[in-house]
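Lab meeting notes turned into a lecture example. A postdoc, R.K., suggested we walk through two folding results consecutively so the class can see how the record format repeats. The first protein's sequence and structure tokens come next.
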Amino acid sequence: MGVTDLQVLQAFKKGQLELFYRRIYPGLLLYAVKNAGDRHDFLAEDCVQNAIFNAWKRRDSFDSIYTLKSFLYSCVQNGALNYLNKLRTRDKVGKQLELPVTDPDDIFCFEVEADVFEEIFVAIEELPDECRRVFKMSYIEFLDIKTICERLSVAESTVKTQRQRAKKYLKERLQHLRPLVEFIFF
């Protein structure tokens, strides 16, 4: 039996972000990459994290998963557009920045991105339970070691060991994507 949208929303409101990151985060990241353009993919993660932070501050105001998603996707799109508009303004005053030419009909490029991110998330899910939990808390939720130790009731050395094991596995498993994987997680 799969997880329902209501369960994802309820967990998000309680601060339990694992379901949110499994079900909603990958789509948000792909949407951000598409909106930011291939040459500004570094911006995608920032847009998504800002959107999640803004949603988190308003978490009690969402009455359905659809209102939450709508808010998140709007924030991501607005963040990307604001950044690209700033770049365009700089270009006009002589910075000579090259801006991405995004073609909304270019589905092939989007599918390549989707495949890459899907492979990364599949590899993360292949990690042993404890490694996966620590890795997600470190690199997806951006929690510090102390917070992870408190939440999991484990020693700092345990968190560091599990994190290193996860990183080692992912670097080996995703070696063909190394520059992207290192950019995202390390």
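The second example is placed directly after the first for contrast:
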Amino acid sequence: MYKHILVSTDGSKLSGKAIRTAVKLADATGAKVTGVYVMAPWVAAAYGEGVMYAPALSPKRYKEITEREARKALAAVEIEARTGGVPYATTMLTADNPWEGIIHAAKAKKCDLIVMASHGRRGLAGLILGSETTKVLTHSKIPVLVCR
């Protein structure tokens, strides 16, 4: 069945459900789990005329903050996998688009399933905010299990 399951997390409560599902499935199939957290790249702040100046984060400080958030989110994968007795690894990476990072990580780690959560946004909210899950489903050649 499955040998290596990638589970993406953004640290949300909903992604916790995806993590639990991935670990249970890994336990049932004898697979290992890799948790992935995709960070947005640092972008220099640009200020136009008439905009109040606020000190921007340095690239170093931005990296510290995002990596701390990534470690916090990935800790949930570690705890769940250890509790479930499932072999695991975690990885964090930077990508312009989270969906591209998720697919890249799944390919690089030779995963045969991607597990992720969906917030289920519809209508205008779905259009404006987009759906990383939909983009992964659309572009991935690896099967995707969506948790809601």
